[in-house]
Design brief:
By secondary structure, the protein is of the alpha+beta class. It has helices at 28-31, 92-98, 117-120, 243-246, 330-353, 364-389, 435-441, 489-492, 497-506, 510-523, and strands spanning 156-157, 161-168, 177-184, 219-226, 251-255, 258-264, 277-285, 297-308, 311-322, 398-404, 407-413, 417-422, 425-428, 472-477, 483-487, 530-538.
């Protein structure tokens, strides 16, 4: 089967793509069983090994061995992924059939030459290329013994690299280059996906026993360069297995005055082969100067990690709300914001993941729409409480995130913040909706003055102030080891960004990090309620 997103070839009934990580639709035919013929439950048998020749190559595929090169060439410039119209690529079914272990019924004259092919065609003109052509060993040009430029689709070089498509072709001249998309018929020696070195231990196996990747249909780029000399006059080496070639996805070899380099096609692969694992820890403190008073900060979190077919599907929600300082109903405002936000978002998104008849991750547009709707629902709850109370002074900030798969969406209203720690750096994602932030952006004050400006507590956006709220949404692609921090201004005003970064880098567990952040804010004065929610991303 093929991936519904990127088109990569997958094993039958695969649930996830091993290249882009996309969830695949269930294959009812592959998963169905006849209960009458199979009354009991039993584990599925191991896949049988695929037959191969004694020399380690696949039946019907032989070719000249690799030769040493004095230098490596730098290529792959100007790669055009669109196959040339005069060299159409075989479809997915063609590649699958070509790699099938089913014996062929063609006559010997129609089959590619096998071991001893040179003896079998001794009556033909001497032509090194005849041993790797798929046309029964017949030379393309009996007079010159030269292969065409570019090579046709279906040819196999080095006994292993089969041309699937001509990606880019140049006129035949010294120094000219052609680029092909090829598959490695000995790809079982080293898995392209997880890098496991199998050698001949899984000879003939199509799928990697370690990660399940299709090792025989993965495409590479092969660049062909015409050298200055017309012929390659070095003596032919015997056909041998090149163990060093199996240890790297990049190979260089020469033949008939041409030099070839096989390299990986650079594509963005999933950073989480088995899906991300999300851990959330939150902590809140009333602060030193407000001891004995009500904590107007509230927070909420939910981390749902489901796994099937050895692949995790996470859905996580976190929120921090800071009731507006000095307002008698600040605690109620933040509480309403958290509860209504969490209620609305979980009802909208969680059902996608826990559906009894098959779970799927919601699409990106659904996630963003749900996040906006949840923030608006929280705003409406606080606004209606304001109208009902008559005072009109209830309000709250909000910073929240939702993680679906390998993406995070962050929303904020007010001056509560969202940070991301990626490696050794800390970066603020959100922008404060405050007066001092506008003054800094306008160049009227310096960033350091934000901590001492007399109007630093004035914000111009909050939940509950208007019937409709304007908010900012940001996205962040996740990586293993990344941390996302949500916090109220009681943390970042007391503990500056460089110290927050140092704490996150030197504390291993999310709980210890939150405790250290709260302690640091109190050590620097603890002038406000302090709340920190830390989201840990692991592979």
């Amino acid at each position: 089967m093929q991936c519904s997103r990127c088109g990569a070839l997958l094993r039958d009934s695969a649930r996830f793509c091993n290249q882009c990580g996309a969830v695949q639709a269930p294959n009812a035919d592959a998963l169905s069983t006849d209960t009458a013929e199979q009354p009991g439950r039993a584990k599925r048998p191991s896949r049988p090994l695929r037959p191969a020749d004694d020399n380690g190559s696949f039946p019907g595929v032989v070719g000249p061995s690799s030769r040493p090169l004095e230098r490596r060439t730098a290529i792959l410039n100007g790669y055009n992924p669109t196959p040339a119209t005069d060299a159409p690529s075989g479809g997915a079914s063609d590649r699958l059939n070509a790699l099938s272990p089913t014996p062929t019924t063609e006559t010997p004259a129609q089959q590619p030459p096998v071991s001893g092919a040179r003896d079998a065609i001794a009556d033909q003109p001497t032509n090194e290329y005849a041993a790797i052509t798929p046309n029964g060993g017949q030379p393309y040009d009996a007079a010159t013994g030269q292969a065409p430029w570019p090579l046709p689709v279906g040819d196999v070089l080095e006994g292993r690299y089969r041309i699937e498509a001509v990606a880019d072709a140049s006129p035949d001249s010294p120094g000219a280059e052609n680029v092909y998309r090829v598959v490695d018929l000995r790809g079982y020696e080293r898995c392209w996906s997880c890098g496991t070195q199998h050698g001949n231990a899984v000879q003939g196996e199509r799928f990697c026993p370690q990660c399940g990747a299709d090792m025989l249909s993965h495409e590479y780029l092969m660049t062909e360069r015409r050298e200055e000399t017309e012929h390659d006059t070095r003596p032919e080496l015997p056909i041998t297995q090149d163990e060093t070639a199996a240890a790297t996805p990049e190979r260089v070899f020469a033949w008939q005055g041409r030099r070839y380099q096989v390299a990986e096609i650079e594509v963005e692969r999933t950073r989480f082969p088995f899906g991300p694992h999300v851990t959330i820890t939150g902590m809140s403190h009333v602060g030193l100067t407000r001891a004995g008073e009500t904590n107007e900060d509230s927070f909420g979190s939910l981390a749902l990690n489901l796994a099937q077919d050895s692949h995790r599907q996470p859905l996580a929600i976190a929120i921090v709300a800071d009731g507006l300082g000095g307002h008698a109903s600040g605690q109620d405002a933040s509480r309403l914001a958290v509860r209504f936000f969490m209620d609305r978002l979980t009802r909208t998104l969680v059902e996608h993941l826990v559906a009894p008849l098959g779970s799927t991750l919601p699409p990106d547009d659904v996630v963003e729409a749900a996040l906006r709707e949840a923030a608006q629902t929280a705003n409406t709850a606080v606004f209606q409480a304001n109208v009902k109370g008559g005072a009109g002074d209830m309000g709250s900030t909000l910073v929240a995130l939702v993680i679906v798969g390998e993406m995070a969406w962050i929303v904020n209203v007010g001056d509560s913040r969202g940070y991301v720690q990626d490696g050794d750096s800390l970066r603020r994602i959100t922008s404060d909706h405050s007066l001092v932030e506008q003054l800094i952006l306008g160049g009227m004050i310096t960033p350091e003055e934000r901590y001492t400006h007399p109007q630093r507590n004035r914000i111009y956006k909050s939940l509950g102030g208007e019937e409709q709220v304007e908010l900012d949404i940001f996205t962040q692609r996740l990586r293993p080891g990344m941390r996302l921090l949500l916090c109220s201004d009681g943390l970042w005003e007391m503990t500056r960004d460089p110290e927050i970064e140092q704490i996150l880098q030197t504390t291993e567990s999310p709980y210890a990090a939150c405790a250290a952040l709260i302690a640091s804010a109190n050590e620097h004065g603890g002038e406000d309620n302090i709340t920190a929610v830390l989201v840990q991303i692991d592979a």
